[in-house]
Amino acid sequence: MGFEHVEHELHKRRSGRNIGLGLVLVAFVAIVFGMTVVKVTTGGLGPKPTATQGASK
Amino acid sequence: MSDASINTQTQGGEAGFRDYFALLKPRVMSLVVFTAMVGLLAAPGGIHPFIAFCAVLFIAVGGGASGALNMWWDADIDQVMKRTTSRPIPSGKVTGGEALAIGLTLSVFACVMLWLATNAVAGALLAFTIFFYAVVYTMWLKRWTPQNIVIGGASGAFPPMIGWAAVTGGVSVESVLMFMLIFMWTPPHFWALALFMNSDYEKAGVPMLTVTHGRRVTRNHILVYTILLAPIAIGAGFTEIGGPIYLSVAVVLNVLFLLGAFKIWRRNEGQAQVDKYRLEKSFFGLSLMYLFLHFGAILAEAALKPYGLGGW
Questions:
Q1: B197 phi/psi in degrees, rounded to 5
Q2: Are residues B70 and B121 in the same domain?
């Protein structure tokens, strides 16, 4: 004897929402990772040159 | 307690992912993505392709967030107007509180991420755009003045300027001209639609020009804004974003647009009703092509520049 699991439309909506949110979070992690890689490799995270730099003899 | 106590009715909080996505006004977002991308690609200087992708994405998310805030504030009038009754809040799929939370969260998220990805000017411009659309247009102007879409149109005009700032870190004549192009195009575009759409703005208490000042005045306004738009659109052709392709496209389109506006101005309601607003509908269709082709031409000039073909 066991309970029969009935898939209701409400469960489908909730499941779709969870999957959607999960994909958004994965995409966000991928974007932050990608941005970090680009910034590090292109020197975008380094200190900005000051006005005095390069003016020395 | 048994399973029978579970409420199977659609309630706030049990909306599907699509319902939340619909809060972001995806169709409006497509225009934001296109114009922001053009602004970004036309800007002088380089930007890493991945950063460019992220910048356009965050601008789109910011635009979507302002759409969610607009739906939260306008839920009462969306319930009254036929065109908007199926939106997530009036249809009962999403609660107003959820829309507000999503709108605010995504607004902060988009501005901070755009700032981190590109620069503070782009982030600040995006923040101002969201503020302008959600507060200045939605909360203040929309229900107060028939000039609502004129001033409110500014929020739709900012994306290319943000895209430009994402690359250059500033504002220039070219980015202001791209802004002005959309800003001055918005009134004739929307008023042409208002002339032939049987909208229930009156029932919702929104003062549209066709309702407050009549259709004759609306026709006059369409012509005046089209005349003011032409020198801006053609003038942009002589700047860094322009070139022979853009200038040719701009001249042809502005002649056609001016002719259309003149014809709309010349005729009266009786004539329009006889042919079921054929002229107004074709002018509206032309207005869509007008904006798409102007920005398409800017994009073409930018794309051809590396090969020594685009620009002056």
A1: -90, 130
A2: yes
Does the complex come out with an ipTM higher than 0.85? no
The structural domain count of chain A equals 1
Residues 158 through 197 of chain B touching chain A, CB cutoff 8 Å:
none
- Tell me the one-letter amino acid at B80: V
* Contact: A8, B8; criterion CB under 8 Å: yes
Q: Are residues B181 and B160 in the same domain?
A: no
Phi, psi of A54 (to 5 degrees): 85, -10
Residues B87 and B150 in one domain: yes
- For residue B1, pLDDT beyond 70: no
What is the count of structural domains for chain B? 2
Q: Which two tokens stand for residue B217?
A: 């005045």
CA distances from A26 to A13, B93, B247 (A): 20, 25, 44
User: Is B116 strand, coil or helix?
Assistant: helix
Q: Nearest 5°: CA angle at B185, between B58 and B114?
A: 10
Question: Of the candidates A8, A21, A31, which has its C-beta nearest B54's C-beta?
Answer: A31
pLDDT tens digits, B254-263: 999 999 999 9
Contact between B52 and A51 under an 8 Å Cβ cutoff? The reply is no
Which of B17, B48, B50 is closest, CB to CB, to A20? B17
Closest-CA residue of chain B to A22: B17
